[in-house]
TrEMBL record:
Coiled-coil stretches noted in the UniProt entry, renumbered to this chain: none
Encoding gene (name): Or8k53
Keyword Oxidoreductase found: no
Subcellular location field: Cell membrane
Protein family: Belongs to the G-protein coupled receptor 1 family.
Entry-linked SUPFAM superfamilies: Family A G protein-coupled receptor-like
Topological category with respect to the lipid bilayer: Multi-pass membrane protein
Protein name: Olfactory receptor
A GO cellular component entry from the record: plasma membrane
Length: 313
């Protein structure tokens, strides 16, 4: 077993989503559409919130960062998955596997804390509206984004270096549609206790700390809204949180569905479906939720559309 090490292993075989040939073409078409909608939606929000002068607020700064992370981790997984649908043998090289896992881990971890920062932003906007521009300064907004990125890079590189400098047993079949850490760990010959412990500790910390910030922020928001005398004020406050709260419920609901299931009812198929949902479907849904539920975004889109029409005609 010791003769199989990381220098021998050149590529991995990904089992993909299904091994049924008749489903390959329909699934390829479906996920191509999902990925393209995700790219167009997230790129559109990034550009719109950057160039529209009325969207230069902390709320839309964080929305731009959310779209960037959505685009980042869906692109880390989506294109290679689509290529493997039409490939004779769905493979990924050893190097690209490590690169894919690195970028996916960085962006998905960062997104968790971006959602927390957005919850804090909504808390300040509703509970301390007169101090909003002072508290949510440009410097604080950049710090709330920079720290998650630096933390995510450090943690992701640490765990991935641990995995890819360990010895593999010569087996190169990954039971997934992308290079994920848990299937890779199962292929290691060396002791995996330390790697599993690192992943467990930081995954637990990420989930609990971010969810704690979100929960406390929304409890304080709810208390503040209930104290409002005006029904119009309550409705406006709820509407400013609606999109973010919807995204929060979908994102954390998917994570809990994946990781909080008892092992007795957990299956490979349900894990695949949940993985597909948070790697491809959620990045598609987020810009749609913010575009359809946010009047300022819709108004900005209308302004830019009319501007483009006037220029062309």
């Amino acid at each position: 077993m010791d003769t199989y090490n990381l220098t021998v292993l050149k590529y991995f075989i990904l089992t993909g989503i299904t091994d049924l040939p008749e489903l390959q073409a329909p699934l390829f078409g479906l996920f191509l559409i999902i990925y393209m909608i995700s790219v167009v939606g997230n790129l559109g929000l990034i550009i719109l919130t950057k160039i529209d002068s009325r969207l230069q607020t902390p709320m839309y700064f964080f929305l731009r960062q959310l779209s960037l992370t959505d685009l980042g981790y869906s692109t880390a997984v989506g294109p290679k998955m689509l290529i493997n649908f039409v490939a004779d043998q769905p493979t990924i090289s050893y190097i690209w596997c490590s690169v894919q896992l690195t970028f996916f881990s960085i962006f998905i971890t960062t997104e968790v804390f971006i959602l927390s920062a957005m919850a804090y932003d909504r808390y300040v906007a509703i509970c301390h509206p007169l101090l909003y521009t002072i508290i949510m300064s440009q410097r604080l907004c950049h710090v709330l984004v920079a720290i998650p990125y630096l933390y995510s890079v450090f943690i992701s590189l640490w765990t991935i270096i641990k995995i890819f400098t360990s010895s593999f047993c010569g087996h190169n079949i990954i039971r997934h549609f992308y290079c994920d850490s848990l299937p890779l760990i199962l292929m290691l010959c060396s002791d995996t206790h330390e790697i599993k412990l690192i992943i467990l500790i930081f995954a637990t910390f990420n989930l609990i700390s971010s969810l704690l910030v979100v929960s406390i922020s929304y409890i304080l928001i709810l208390v503040s809204i209930l104290r409002m005398n005006s029904s119009e004020g309550r409705h406006k406050a709820f509407s400013t949180c609606g999109s973010h709260l919807t995204v929060i419920v979908i994102f954390y609901g998917t994570l809990f569905f994946m990781y909080a299931q008892p092992k007795s009812i957990h299956s490979f198929e349900t894990g695949q479906v949940a993985s597909l949902f948070y790697t491809l479907v959620i990045p598609m849904l987020n810009p749609m939720i913010y575009s359809l539920r946010n009047q300022e975004v819709k108004q900005a889109l209308n302004r830019k559309w009319k501007m483009c029409v006037n220029i062309l005609f």
